[in-house]
Each structure stands twice: as C-alpha cells, then as structure tokens.
Design goal:
Four copies of one chain form a homotetramer. By secondary structure, chain A is α/β, with parallel strands linked by helices. Chain A has helices at residues 11-23, 107-120, 144-157, 168-175, 191-198, 214-225, 254-261, 270-274, 280-290, 316-332, and strands spanning 2-5, 27-32, 37-42, 59-63, 83-85, 88-90, 96-100, 124-126, 160-164, 180-183, 204-207, 232-236, 266-268, 294-298. The first copy, chain A, folds into two domains: 2-63, Alpha-Beta Plaits, CATH 3.30.70; 74-332, TIM Barrel. Chain A has ten helices and 14 strands. Chains A, B, C, D: Its EC number is 2.5.1.54.
Chain lengths: 337, 337, 337, 337
C-alpha cells in the first residue's frame, strides 16, 4: 500500500500518518519527491481497517499494490486448478461443453435435447429452472420440477447437470438434483448467496456480472472459496457497454487476463454474450483460440417456440455441426473432447 | 409490437408470420415499404410468449413499442405516488433526508449520530447491518445486533429506520426493527429478493443497479409491486462508466427521466455515487434542483475511523451545515424540510 | 512515479531498474515490502521517455502519481481563471449563457433568434456553420456563409459569437467572424486542430469527448495552452454510457471535479447531453447548483423545422421562461446575469 | 420509418402527421393498436429533413428501420469487397499482416524491423509519423521525415506502407510516401478528414473510435466512400469500457457483426486493444478464428527503448514465432499468408 501525501503537506501530517500506521504494527518507508512525499506501507493491511488513512490530514490518496483476493490468486497457487464435474475435468486438456436450453420446459424437450447433446460430445447438460427475468411477467421457470427432469435426463445419458440457483431455498432444492451450481451474472455480487454455495461440496460456475471488473469477479470467487469450497469455474458472458449491435460485449481478452491472475478454470458463454445465434460459431472458435477451458452454449430442439432466449439458441443439429467445426481448433490448442 | 421483415422476404413468409400472430388472437396491420415490409401487432403481447417471432423465416427484427412494466408506469397511474415512512412523506412537497453511517458499528456511534441528525432535520436514519462488500475479508456488518441498535436509536429520536437486506433471512430478521427495507445496487436484479420484500407491508427503497438501464430499474420495481407492495421509492446512486475520477457517475438526469415514466418517488445518494465527501454538497444541491424527492447521505461521527466508506462520510457538523445550505434550494423547488 | 516490482523479483533486476533511472539524472527511493518491493522515482519524469521501465525484467507495473498536464493544473495556478468573450466574463460571478440554434439555416432564422436571446439575457450567440454529422447525407451546415450571418446578427445585437471549427480551413475562415472557437466532442483529441486554435488569440470552448476521462480532457486543454493560448473554457456535454433513455449521460459531477483539479472555467450543455428538450430546464438548474460557470442551450425559432437537433431545441419563448426560472438559483450560488 | 403516436393522441394530431409526411411525397400506412397508433412511412426519408416529425403534437417517438449508410451496406452490395494494398489483397483468402513500430524513430529502427517483418511474412509495414498523443509533452512523431524513412524501407523490402494521417497537411505530405492512409480512433468522426482521404485514390484503414457503435463506424466509412473512394478497410482496436485490466476492451464480435452488415474487409489490432504484449498472441488467434481478414501488430526491435507504446510491442523474434503459431489457425479458416 502506498500513501501519497498532498504537495506541501506539513511535516507533522506526515509524522502523524506514519505513527498511525506503525501503531497498528506495520512498517513504513518514506520517499520524498520534488513535488510529493509518498509513504510505503509494509505488512498485513487488514490491520488498518477502521483507520481511514485516506482521510487523514495531508493525505492525497492511497494506492493498493496487492490484490485483495488470496485463495483465487495465482501468486499463491501457481498450478492451474482442475474442477471435476461428473466425468468432465474442467481446466484439464479436455475442452468441456455445457449445453442445453435456456429454460427447462417439458420432459420431452429436455430428453430430446440431452440425447442429442450427448451424441455430439457435450459432457454437461445445462438448463434453467429458476429463471431471473427482467420483467416479472415473463416465464419464471419450472423450478424444482425442472431440476427433476434434468436430473432424470442426466441419469439416462450419463451427463452431469448444471443449473442456476438464485436463493438459499433454490440451493437447498437443487442440491440433490444438480452436479454443479450456477451463479448468474445478476447475482455475482449477491454475497449472501456466494457464501451459501461456498458452504456446500458441489462445484460452482460463477458468471461474470454485467458490469463487474475482473478484479471484482475474482473477489466474488474468493467469497465462495473462503467458505471452504475451492471448486469454482469462471464464465465470461459479456459485459455491458454502449454497443447495441450485440446484447452484451463479449470480453474474450478476459480469458488470458484471468489466466494470468488466477489458477481457476474459465469458460465462455457466447450465446448470452451476443444474444444472436449466428454469432455463436465465430465466438466459440475465438474463445477456444483464446484459451478457454470450455463453452456454455444454448441448444433448444425448437428455438422458434422456446419460452426464453430462442434468438440465441442453436438446434441440436446446428450444435452437432458446430462441435465438428470446433474440434480442429481445440486440437490446435492441445485440447480434445 | 412491430415486426420488420427482411428486404425481399418472400410473400409466403409474410403470410406465415401473420397467421401465427393471428392464431394467438392478436390483430395485425401490414405496411409495405419500398425496401421492407413491416407488420404491426395489436393486442396483448404476453400471448406471444413461446412464439419466437424473431426466429421465423423472413423476419429481420422485432421492435417493442410499449413498456413491459405496468404498475410502475405513469401511463396507467398519472398521479405521483407518496410513500410514507414513519412521519416522512416521500414524494410530497417535503424533502426527505435519509442520513446515517454506512455501517452500524456500536451503540455509541449510532446514538451520537442519530441525535445529531434529528437535530439537523433528517427524518430517516440509515445504517448498514448486513453489508455487501467486494472482498470477503472486509467488515461484513453487525447484522441483527446492528438493527437492534438502530431501532433503539430510532425510538429515542423519533426517526424512522431504513437498512439494507440481502437475503430472505435478513428480511425476516429486519422486519421487526426497520420501517423501510433497502435493496442495494448489487441486488437490484436479485428477483427472488425483490419478490420477498414485495410480499411484506413495509416500504422499499430500491437502489439502481451499477449497470441498470432506467427501463430495467422500473421493471425491478414492478417485481416488488406485482407481489402487492406498491410502496416503492427509487434511489439513483451512480452508474458504472469509464470515468475513474468519481467512484461512479451520478446520473442526475435519471431524476426527471424517471418522473416522466413513473409515478414512483425518487431520491439521490450523492455519497455512494461520488465516493468523495467534498462532492456531496454540490451534488446534493444539483439533485434537489433536478427535482429529487429526497437525499440519502452518509454521516459518521468520526469518518476517519469508520469501518466502511469513511472517505465519503460527512461529520454531523458538516451535515448540519449542508442542511442549512440546501434549504433555500429546496424552497425554490417548492419543498420544505 | 512508483515502480512496483514483481513478487520475488531477483535482486539484480531491482538494481538494474535503479541504475537505469539514476542514469537519467533522477533519484530513487527503495521500499521493500513482505510481498513486493517498490521503487519511488523523484525528479522530472519526461527524462524517462524512451526508457520503458514497465518492460524491464522484474517490473510488474508503473504507477504515475502526478498529472501530466501543468498549465491547466490548479496545483500550479490556484486562482480560478476568467475568460473574456465579448462583454462576458466566464468564470466570474456572472452566469454566462451561450444560446442559439444547432445549425445556422438562414438570415431570418439567425436574426430572429439573436434578438430574442439578447432580450432574455444571453450574452453569447452560438450556432453551427461547419456541422459534424454522423451520416454524410445529413445537412452539413452553411459553412462560411453561416458565419457571416452570425457575425452580422452579433454586431446588431451586441452579442459575442461562438461557432465550431472542424479543420484548419475552418479556423482560418472563422477567424474574422467569431469571438470564440468551439472544438466539438468528436474533435476533442484532434490534437492537430487543438494546436491550431492554440496558436490563435481567440478564446476556445473545448467540449468533452464522448468517451473522454476528465484527465484526458484536461490534457486536451493543455494542448491548446501549450501553444500559448490560455483562454480555454471547458464544456461538459454528456458522456457515452449504456443508458439509452437520454442521448448521452450528463456527468454533472464533472463540474466540481474539474474545479478541484483545474483553474479553467467550465460550462454545461444540457441540450446535447440529454437530446430531449423537456430535460433542459431541470438539467440547467442542476448544473447551476453544481457550480457551473455558464450554460450552452439550443434555441431555434421553430424547432419543428430545424435542420438538425430540433428535438432538443427550446423556442425563444421557452428560453426566456427558463432564464427567469434560473435566476434565483444563480443568485443562491452568488451569480448574476 | 415508423412514427409511434402517444396513447390517446387526438385524431387531428394523427391526421396532421399524415398530411405533413404525404406533402413531402411519401406514403403512409396507419396501424391502430389498443394503446397506441403507429404510422409507417414509405419512400425516400431524406425528403423529411427539416420536418422534425418527432416534435409534432401527439408524436411519442420515431423509429428508423433502415440504415443510413448505403455504399458500405451489404444489402446493396452482397459480394465481399477486396482492397488491394501493394501486393496484399485484403478481404481475399490471404490473411494480411500490417506490422511495425508504433512510432518511426530512426533509419536503423525502421530498416531493421522492416527486413525482419518481411522475412516473417508480413505484407504491409505500419509505422507512426504523425502521432496523436494524450499529453502534448509526449513524443509527437518524426512527421514527414518518418514517412520518407518508411517509404525507403518499403521500397527495399517490397512491403507496402500504411501510416496515420491527422490533418489535410498530413494527407498531402503522406500522399507520395504511403500506399494506404490510416485514420486513427480519435479521428474516426473527424468528418472533414474523412472527406479529404475520400477524395484521394489511396486505400484507407479506418480504425473504430473509442466509443463508436458499429453503426457510427459504418457511417464514417460512408463519408469516405461518398467522396468516391471505395477502398476502405475497417480496423477493430478495442472500445472504452469500465474494465481497466486491459487498455481497451477488444470487441471481437465486431468482426462477424461487421461482416453481416457490410461488404468491407475488417482487420483487428490486438496490440492497441489490450496494451499488453502478453495478450497479443491469444487475441491474434481469436481474431483469426472469428474471421478477421488481417491483423495489425506492433513490432519494435527494442521495445524497452520505444518512444511510444513499448509495453504492447513484440520483438521481431516474437513476431516471427507468432506468425508460425498463427498459420495453422489461418489455414483452418481457409486462409494463407
């Protein structure tokens, strides 16, 4: 931590800052410039909570040098983590596909799509049962009934199941049915919910918030991990910008940035990021080429009658074609599926 | 709703769209342009859920003309709503101040600040007990103990109490202590939580999400209202942009925009929006001049030792001075406090 | 400037950085933390150009402590500057109105509006002659003919003239007709153009770029000032965000932020910021209350037939009513007009 | 164009709108809904300039259905365009590399890098001579002397030359030295400059503005094309968002979006987009996989002493390695180099 003093801060304000920091058991290093004096602070900064250094007389600003996340930080865990979900090993040299409909709508829908996805090579079945929708009048999901249908489809096909949870009640209802909890973009800083899934023993797929920096995202992962559950997979799904040609702006550079800062695996969801099915193949190829550990893709047997997000859903046939198109790109990256 | 067909869409694709829409009991109006044909759809669009018109052959895009929120919409409720919290009437010609510390830290802190705020004219005491913090290692709040302290301070001073709830458990714990629930920016699209406070009989302060459009914000209000609780007050608290000189960018134009679209009251939180105490007076004046129904301002007896957000907190003395400075601006706007 | 070394950077990389910095005649201060070592650099940093410290072995990042703008910086020029345009003194206790049509369209239009504006109290006539338009097929302005009409209207009414210049040719054409050059948002980082107006002896109104940080904006002012022309007035006109309810998001907090960092005057353009005439009065009041030195407002005799931006233009009657409504707010801020 | 009337707009306001539109020689189609009435407008909308329909009594809003750019629009030119620069054919099945230093600094620098790039397979030499820099105190480029050095290096190696122009004077100076003009991000809406390069017979590389939508970008291309020069290549170089981990956010989805809307070729500049050399390889792979027609990459013989943007520059050796790594990805996309 670096404390920058105002130009011409009186000597006694500098001494005061130093004495407050040192009283907390931290060390300081003073550096006097021509215009400004800076004070480096060495030691455990959590001891400074409640000493609002930035408000002390003479202080211009405080700059943090080290990240606030520890368990998610690559600096303290250099080896990439692998998270196992069913038979899939996310973060290994396997490219993992999580595919399925935005919303679970019926038994026929979920079984039809699950069988097709399995045949195409997808390892994990995704589907929404508790749906966060912008308008309260839009379809809200089949809730626990949807999870049961998914679990049955997973059992028959041998696929693992991932589904979004939006509350403690949903976590409890989902626990027996799913193999992985999904935290959606809108709940990325629902810290209460992060702690709840952090207390469980199931892997968590943590989507990036619409307006979350990568630093905030890794801090959200830290919330889950600090409760004891280290099985976190990140999912880039587009951020909100001024551009309206796509639903969100897919930040593919988040893939290598996350890999430079964290040991956690990261996948990409091109369906939600773009909102346009015609962009899913190109953004899937780009994500793989950027180093993503997997993809989450919406597939619906009949997109034209989907109860949510049909515009971004592939048919099972289109998904199958996409998988075959993606395989050589995955192979170039040293991955298989 | 308007359906725009692709240039040169074959006649049979146009007929197909019309027949699908009309089968659902809606009417259509066809308009053939030189380049494109458009189809106007008349009637209750919720009947079209599950008919993904935008995916039909020949369709280029679908444009919605009417808003998806109804109860929050000024078109169906022209009179401004007044929400009563304790003795305060938000949305009336009274300018309402919600003031207090970011976090409740101790009995002494909350009583000291409450007495001072009351004397300065604030009607509602704010304070955080369940704190959403970016890092899990930051102070997380006193939880129910904090609420009890606030309730006692409110009782002594005659001030109403508002505090943030972050989960169903927090709603249940807070119910007996607070006069108004606050939904924080990070939970604005925690639809599960919105429904829970919507089932209660207490007013709700709904902060705007960091990256929420005004349309999404009013849809979040609709979630609360559609459960039966119409006592919603909106709070503009800054949006996330590229600018880093302030913590967020305070969108003061949201005040008149909301008033043109909704009958709900709206207040402004200049403390969280800017993150800088020196900007609170100017942004408070601007908010009042823009037509805000109230202000939420952070006040701490000793900002330099606050456990959260000290940099944006006024002292009680500074708050008192601010109130006196704001009064003539409020009067010019036809308001008093 | 602070150089942050990577965790466990070898001793020789630290020594190498220090020796490179010191060879350039700068001083260093070393501060060794538990995780990281930081090197403070003292002296004139322009000497380090061409020594890309951030690329040296062992360096994690370089943080700048002091601003790169000098002439625009309040630290070296504590007194607020006053810029004189005609009879108007921008930055004084006078509130300055620049008003007029988006585009100059005809002699009748400009004289009609100029006479009305003068009567309402506006000091400066604005009008576009060289128009930057998103589409090449939209009206591009009357160019020099428009400037002549403005100059005549200014002469008759005693108002000063401000108009946008978009090229060196436009600067040369406008020089004899206008009292103040305007640099538009799209040209805020057209550094060539900034230098050209910096070589003249006329005041410059520098609009903020659509996506410009306040720091970049003050650096753009520095371009003009470093050529010798210190008569710069800044104009906040909204920044681009995700919100679509307004054309741009008016960043009113930029007013006090600029005043904390620079001695230059700052005005606000609520017409372009919002794009909606109904929002102009509330945003004008808010701007004055935030401390703006003036306002730029679009006024057109018949907005419904304006060749550009009619939707945000007031009629002369509406402008007159607005001025009367704004006067008491200006007076509260210690200003008159 | 669709005109949406306010709910309960009086009949005479509807008739008034229709009569104004039809007087201009356009046709209308009326569609009466339960809540709102909409009026479709058919014909050449440029006839409506100066009739601000959105300001007429009873009108709620006007929605445009067709794009304002014509020459750049794929609807009227279905075949992809190929732009020839020297021996390179951009938009063909050749993957084109534009590589070189951010700034031309010396004869030795430019010849060293040009020879190496040529050997690695780059077809076009890039280099800055007129440099737009945020601070006026940063290195501003060698100007015409730099262009001469580049031209000589191009002649010796057989590479074509591209360099940024920032004013009419620079266009004139550069004309004899370069094979392609570059318009930088900061000048994307410098419409005067766009017209000037549009009057020449040399290809233009048009970078996307920091905050430009794809629609605005294609309108900027239209400015160039409407002057007669159809040889435009677009370059995605990152947009400004709230994320600070990268300099800008590379919007790779812009590649397929542009290809769906326009026939113009598009390349990607991962160096400027990210500002971090370690991200250049992954973002280059992703760009190719997304369908880009080429890449612009910064290469400097000694990045640690570069006068600008060293942090994002590869060495010639790193560039050579990158080219070899990229070739199989290009081949998978049906491209060669």
């Amino acid at each position: 931590m670096i404390i920058v003093m105002k130009p011409n801060a009186p000597e006694k304000t500098i001494e005061n800052v130093i004495s407050i920091v040192e009283e907390k058991g931290l060390q300081t290093h003073l550096s006097r410039g021509e215009q400004v004096t800076i004070i480096g602070v060495i030691g455990d900064k959590t001891r400074l909570e409640g000493s609002n250094i930035d408000l002390l007389d003479g202080v211009e600003k405080v700059t943090h040098i080290t990240e606030s996340y520890k368990l998610a930080n690559k600096k303290f865990h250099a080896q990439p983590s692998i998270v196992t979900v069913g038979n899939a090993r996310i973060g290994s040299d396997e490219l993992v596909f999580m595919a399925g409909p935005c919303s679970i709508e019926s038994e026929e829908q979920v079984f039809t799509v699950a069988r097709a996805l399995k045949a195409s090579g997808a390892q994990i079945l995704r589907g929404g049962a508790f749906k966060p929708r912008t308008s309260p009048y839009a379809f809200q999901g089949l809730e626990e009934q949807g999870l049961k249908l998914m679990a049955e489809a997973g059992k028959e096909t041998g696929m693992a199941i991932v589904s979004e949870v939006t509350s403690l009640a949903a976590v409890e209802a989902a626990y027996q049915h799913v193999d992985m909890f999904q935290i959606g973009a809108r709940n990325m800083q629902n810290f209460y919910l992060l702690k709840e899934v952090g207390k469980t023993d199931k892997p968590v797929l943590l989507k990036r918030g619409l307006a979350a920096t990568i630093d905030e995202w890794l801090n959200a992962a830290e919330y889950i991990m600090s409760e004891g559950n280290h099985q976190v997979v990140l999912c880039e799904r587009g951020i909100r910008t001024f551009e309206t040609a796509t639903r969100n702006t897919l930040d593919i550079s988040a893939v290598p940035v996350v890999k430079s800062k964290s040991h956690l695996p990261i996948i990409v969801d091109p369906s939600h990021a773009t909102g346009i099915k015609d962009l899913v193949p190109s953004m899937s190829r780009a994500s793989i080429a950027a180093g993503a550990d997997g993809l989450m893709i919406e597939v619906h047997p009949t997109p034209a009658t989907a109860l949510s997000d049909g515009a971004q859903s592939l048919t099972p046939q289109e998904f199958d074609r996409l998988c075959r198109e993606l395989l050589p790109f995955a192979n170039l990256m040293g991955r298989h599926f």
